Amino acid sequence: MPSVHLADRGVVRVSGEDAKSFLDGLVTCDLDRVTPEAPRLGALLTPQGKILFDFIVFQAPDEIGGGYYLDTFRVFAPDLAKRLRFYKLRAKVTVEDMSETMAIVAGWDESKPDDEVGLVAQDPRLPELGWRAIVAAQDAGEFDKAPATAYHAHRIGLGVPEGGRDFLFGDAFPHEALMDQLHGVDFDKGCYVGQEVVSRMQHRGTARTRLVPAVYEGGFAAETGVAVTAGNKALGKTGTGVEGRGLLMIRLDRAADAMAAGHPILAGGIPVHLEKPHWVSFPYPGEDVTSSGVGPA
Length: 297
Known about the structure:
Layout: E1 3-5, E2 9-15, H1 19-24, E3 40-45, E4 51-59, E5 68-73, H2 77-86, E6 94-97, E7 102-107, E8 118-122, E9 131-136, H3 148-158, H4 195-204, E10 209-216, E11 227-230, E12 233-242, E13 245-251, H5 252-260, E14 265-267, E15 270-274, H6 289-292
Antiparallel strand pairs: 1-7, 2-5, 2-6, 3-4, 4-5, 7-9, 8-9, 10-13, 10-15, 11-12, 11-14, 12-13, 14-15
């Protein structure tokens, strides 16, 4: 049964009596929906609505000290902690980078471990991803039964992106990174940094660029960050890819025009076929929007 230590992930802890209200006023997810049993995908945005950091927010039970633990890309954990401290002002919170003493592990196609190992829960983005946990760093080796590439092949196969891999921080809106589809933006919560821009994109349906999964012909995948084209026109760029599958950040309207004109979509020069995950609600290129009953996200 596969489980893996995700060594490229780090942990930032936010604790103190104001921790919940402090985070709730900053991040895209609703802290009222975060419990020890139910973490949630979230992000800290620029005032212009672009993703600075994405993370999964875990809540620790009060009996082990409480607080919120942000599972984030490890190389950016110090910057995330620094940015949160910048917003601290008079809030009674403590922000700590715990990446040296805590680790992220994940597993799929198996039951999640007992809570005694750490903060354990089903992955909040998509049930098929499996479970995810924050454990003591010295215990991470117990779960390192598969290479990290196996986890990313599983993730990419499901069409689930990750910040710092499939899109650049500071360059993508939450809709483009599919956070609206993966429960990472709560549109009925109060204000947070960048909220006005994200709400406007949601209500006006202006998210034309999206990350979409694709199948490469020939079983190979293009390198990350190379051009996606069709009919000599640029559609976007590649995200990560493995084992003949990958994610593409593309303009959906341009892809639809190319498909209607009979032009193949090429990622790094390799023909690809777009694949719509079952959990995506927005129309895909080639779909009949009027008959699908789904408006733009």
